[in-house]
Write a structure and sequence with these properties.
This protein is α+β, with helices and mostly antiparallel strands. The chain has a domain at 13-65. 13% of the residues lie in helices and 23% in strands. The chain has one helix spanning 55-65, and strands spanning 13-15, 22-24, 29-32, 39-41, 46-48, 51-53. The strands form three sheets. It has a two-stranded antiparallel sheet. Strands 3-4 form a two-stranded antiparallel ribbon. It starts with 12 loop residues before the first strand and ends in an 18-residue tail after the last helix. The protein binds zinc ion (3 copies). One zinc ion binds next to helix 1.
Length: 83
């Protein structure tokens, strides 16, 4: 296993229905969010464009900075072989 020196717990907080405050995930972090730098665990990690993001930043990335455009109606030129 290749460790990156990450020795933190996941910093992602979840909204709890019974509480006003978010509950920290607390699982062992495997990466840091590319945007905000939060420690994120395997379950909270979102990957896009080869980077790791937390949920919030992933949403933002997807909307604003993702180079992989949302699936638009892909136009495929149908080539007809005329004989
Ligand atoms: Zn983030
Ligand atoms: Zn987590
Ligand atoms: Zn992306």
């Amino acid at each position: 296993m290749h460790e990156h020196g990450l020795n933190q717990n996941c910093e992602i907080e979840y909204a709890a229905s019974w509480s006003d405050q978010g509950l920290p995930c607390g699982k062992r972090a495997v990466a840091e969010c590319t945007d905000c730098g939060k420690a994120i665990c395997e379950e909270c990690k979102m990957e896009c464009c080869g980077d790791s993001y937390c949920g919030y930043c992933y949403d933002y990335h997807e909307t604003h900075t993702c180079v992989r455009k949302p699936v638009q109606s892909e136009r495929r030129s149908q080539e007809r072989s005329t004989a």
